[in-house]
Amino acid sequence: MDFDLSEEQRMLKDSVERLVADKYDFDQRKQHLKGEHGFSKEIWAQFAELGLLALPFSEADGGFGGGAVETMIVMETLGRALAVEPYLATVVLSGGLLRHAASAEQRATYIPKIAGGEAIFAFAHGERRARYNLAHVETKAKKDGDGWIIDGEKSLVLNGDAADYLIVSARIAGNANDRDGIGLFIVDARAPGVTRRGYWNQDATRAAEISFAGVKVDAAHVLGEPGKALPVIERVTDEAIAALCAEAVGGMGAAHADTVEYLKTRKQFGVTIGSFQSLQHRAVEMFVFIEQARSITYFATMMAGESNAAERARAMSAAKIQIGRSVRFVGQQSVQLHGGVGMTYELKVGHYFKRGTCIDMLYGDADHHLAKLASMGGLIAA
Fold first, then answer.
1. Of 66-70, 341-345, 355-359, where does mean pLDDT reach its minimum?
2. How distant, in Å, are the alpha carbons of 79, 94, 127, 375 from that of 17?
3. Considering 15, 181, 211, 377, which has the largest number of Cβ atoms within 10 A of its Cβ?
4. What is the mean pLDDT of residues 291-297?
5. Which of 317, 328, 38 is nearest to 201 (CA)?
6. Residue 308 pLDDT > 60, yes or no?
7. What percent of the chain has pLDDT over 70?
């Protein structure tokens, strides 16, 4: 199989890498974190200028018609930079829901806002008792004339405190864990009845707890068929998992490069510690784990567009298992090989480890997906 990038994809890779090199070294990242919502509006505007925010949308909707490979290229580069801009929340998650569920009129209204960098979106789906069960939705949506009234609470909404619009999952019928009966609604984040509490995650990204109390949504802001939203949510979550795998590969690669460079320069007993064979072996083991993660990320990227939901779910679980194992090993070794300074806030390797750990936890950690894959009969069904 040919894994070479096309000319357009190489140009995309080069342009993103140039932006990161110019605007996103570690000291600049610290400044970006001081922004109003923990990221740089200037960088977000440059994402828009480069077309990154329009990348996955069809040309008919004002995008560039990119796919999972283009998303992988962007996310891997953002992973190396430890970027904190809401690309996953706005473009991958919310943008994915709009691509797969929105009407032509809704896409015409909202996709240009994303592509132009004019609006931040967040997907408000997770709830405190849901664990990793995407079907667990307790937030209620009741019919009110032609519209709906939403009541409930959402937890760990990525970049929810910065969002201009929220795409909210709510149950219109059935019990909390039923697969049927879930709807998706576009809600103005500043609408009456919406309360947000933003906070920092351990990896310096932002999230929010969001409450909905009698929030009114008219019929024009319902995504897709009410009650049939779960397959779309699962599909977009799988796309997000593939994107997160790419981000993790980028972060691990950068952590490994920094660690190897440290081994070449740090001296102990009058010699560089990189001359010790045991430490060389550890660096090689890190490289092997990264390449395993890269291979499974390619697989997940290719399977992100798979129409067979069961086969797609198997691929994403396999990817999450390997990514979880790799980020743990590479993160631990990066910190340990740096010695005491690896634990400090001033050094990047600890931040890569934190971000990798959070990526492992998002949408199911390695243990969860191992059990899930086993319940499905393994990667190749019997």
1. 341-345
2. 11, 24, 36, 40
3. 181
4. 97
5. 38
6. yes
7. 99
Exposure letters 218-233 (e unless 16+ CB within 10 A, then b): eeebbbbebbebbebb
Amino acid at 313: A
**Rounded mean pLDDT of 132-155?**
96
58-88 core/surface letters (b: 16 or more CB in 10 A; e: else): eeebebbebebbbbbbbbbbbbbbbbbbbbb
From residue 24, alpha-carbon distances to 7, 27, 43, 78, 257 in Å are 25, 8, 9, 9, 17
Query: In this structure, what DSSP letter does residue 23 have?
Result: H
Tell me the C-alpha distance between 148 and 165, whole Å. 17
Instruction: Report how far residue 207's alpha carbon sits from residue 363's, in angstroms, rounded to the nearest whole number.
Output: 15
Burial of 94 (0-12, 13-18, 19+ CB in 10 A): buried
- Could you give the CA distance from residue 335 to residue 348 in angstroms, rounded to a whole number? 10
Q: Which of 168, 126, 82 is nearest to 347 (CA)?
A: 82
d(CA 303, CA 59): 22
**DSSP state string for 102-144:** --HHHHHHHHHHHHTT---EEEE---TTTTT-TT----EEEEE
Which among 64, 153, 82 is positioned nearest to 353, based on CA atoms? 82
> Which tokens sit at 4?
């070479």
Q: What number is the average pLDDT over the span 354-381?
A: 92
Q: CA-CA distance, 248 to 252, in Å (whole number)?
A: 6
Structure tokens at 227: 């009650």
253-262 average pLDDT score = 96
User: Is the Cβ–Cβ distance between 325 and 377 less than 8 Å?
Assistant: no
Distances in whole angstroms, Cα of residue 34 to Cα of each of 27, 39, 76, 354: 12, 7, 23, 19
d(CA 338, CA 350) in angstroms, rounded, equals: 10
Q: How far apart are CA 10 and CA 32, in angstroms?
A: 27
Tokens encoding 129: 């008792």
